[in-house]
Design brief:
Protein name: Transcriptional regulatory protein CutR
Distance between the termini: 17 Å
Radius of gyration: 18 Å
GO cellular component, one term: protein-DNA complex
GO molecular function: phosphorelay response regulator activity; transcription cis-regulatory region binding
Number of helices: 8
Strand order of the largest sheet: 2-1-3-4-5
Shape: elongated
Number of strands: 11
InterPro entries: CheY-like_superfamily, OmpR/PhoB-type_DNA-bd, Sig_transdc_resp-reg_receiver, WalR-like, WH-like_DNA-bd_sf
Strand content: 15-25%
Largest sheet: 5 strands, parallel
Pfam families: Response_reg, Trans_reg_C
Length: about 220
């Protein structure tokens, strides 16, 4: 899952991004509304964690732009105000969910994951295919009932492949969904991660390489 965190309190923004990355999400961070508009014009995000009171371009205007563009991106709006009227106004602007500050990080993570499941065809909370069971909320992976320990990027790649439900996923798509914008697109990081993931999942191999196209399960 790829997430954009838009928050002008830099320490908070960086802390949220670090926490979400530990949950195997690819996270980009910006600190004002203008930078947010620039990013959503370039990258395809599953969820935008959007502070409402932003400099340069207000969070309300960022939300309006996402809706205007008809993007599938879901918006989790943050605000220092917990008033019902503010929550209603934010939802009417196009936000999909609303979280007042201060918040528990576990709740933020749960809400981001819930929104991520709604970005395309609705998917179950637990993904299962070819004997593999992946629970994004618990960060658990099992194969034929045996738990598999995965690093965050390995987990993220496996989640993207399972979400594709048998369709081929290109290396470029994996790079976009599992890594942030600071990753060099010309590295072999996708190939190496897939190789390591195959080894950990064991035999028989369930990740199939489709020459010239990508990978599928």
């Amino acid at each position: 899952m790829r997430v954009l965190v838009v928050e002008d309190e830099q320490l908070l923004a960086d802390a949220v991004a670090t926490g979400l990355r530990r949950e195997a999400m690819a996270v980009d961070v910006v600190y004002d509304g203008a930078a947010a508009l620039e990013r959503i014009g370039v990258n395809d995000y599953d969820v935008v964690v959007l502070d409402r009171d932003l400099p340069l371009v207000h969070g309300d205007d960022v939300a309006r732009k996402i809706v205007e563009l008809g993007m599938s991106t879901r918006i989790l709006m943050l605000t220092a105000s917990g008033d019902v009227s503010d929550r209603v106004e934010g939802l009417e602007l196009g936000a999909d969910d609303y979280l007042p500050k201060p918040f528990a990080f576990s709740e933020l993570t749960a809400r981001v994951r819930a929104l991520g499941r709604r970005t395309s065809v609705p998917l179950p909370p637990v993904l299962e295919r070819a004997g593999i069971k992946l629970d994004p909320n618990r960060r658990e992976v099992f194969r034929d009932g045996k738990e598999i320990q995965l690093a965050p990027k390995e987990f993220a790649v496996l989640e993207v492949l399972l979400r594709s439900e048998g369709a081929v996923v290109s290396a470029e798509q994996l790079l976009e969904k599992a890594w942030d914008e600071n990753t060099d697109p010309f590295t072999n990081v996708v190939r190496v991660t897939v190789m390591t993931l195959r080894r950990k999942l064991g035999e028989p191999a369930v990740i199939v390489t489709v020459p010239g196209s990508g990978y599928r399960i």
